[in-house]
Amino acid sequence: MLTDASREGYRAIEKAGHEILPKTDSNYESRSYGRSCFLFFKLMCSTPLGKICASDHAMNSVDEMIALNRDLKAFFRKAGAETPIWNELEKGAAKYLK
């Protein structure tokens, strides 16, 4: 779901008329991009190293993460982007997004 949600985000960026950066991510629909994302998310969600990285950044910046989520939702609405997977993930994170 995380990989598919990132693809939704990239589609919204393109729909809004913006360039995908970094250029290496412009192949976000490809199988290789999906595999790279899967491996990254697996590392972040399943290892002590991932927990350290996440706790150092996101877990100590709850207000920043809430603001980022709010602003991304506004961007998606303005771009007219469909983000069903992103929305499903947001529901799961609702207890953290007060």
Order of helices and strands: HHHHH
Average pLDDT reading: 88
- Extract low-pLDDT stretches: none
Structural class computed from helices and strand pairing? mainly alpha
Number of helices: 5
Strand percent estimate: under 5%
Please bin the fraction of helical residues. 55-70%
Q: Tell how many strands the DSSP assignment holds.
A: 0
Characterize the overall form. globular
User: What is the C-alpha radius of gyration, as a whole number of Å?
Assistant: 14 Å
Distance separating the two termini:
22 Å
State the major sheet: none
Structure in words:
With 98 residues, the chain is mostly helical. The protein contains five helices and no strands. The protein has helices at residues 2-15, 31-46, 48-56, 62-79, 84-92. It starts with a helix and ends in a 6-residue tail after the last helix.
Q: Secondary-structure blueprint of this entry?
A:
Blueprint: H1 2-15, H2 31-46, H3 48-56, H4 62-79, H5 84-92
Tag the structure with descriptive keywords.
98 residues, mainly alpha
What's this, in brief?
With 98 residues, this protein is mainly alpha-helical.
